[in-house]
Design a protein that fits this description.
single chain, about 100 residues, alpha+beta, three-stranded antiparallel β-sheet, about 40% helix
Length: about 100
Amino acid sequence: MQYQRDEVAAAAPEQNAGDYFVLSAESGSWVVSTAMVRAIESALDAWPAPRWIRFVDLSGSRVRVRASTLHYIVQSTADQRAFDRRMCRALREERKGEEGWEDD
């Protein structure tokens, strides 16, 4: 199994984190591509709903999870992460300005 993952990693071009989605379930979390999440969402929207969801994560792992155990799918773009970092810095600065402040 490790040999197959190494082949996938070697074949994949070097890249930054870019845009991806995080799929979380009771058994773990996986990072998946936009194309893969579209397929997952289509399967989840189908009637009747599937019992199992199958997908391949960005590391090349094949995954199968029960649809009923999924918690969430969240998008993570480079712009969203940059905004989050700016927000964290702003909140940290705001807290620094409040140090030593005591309510009357």
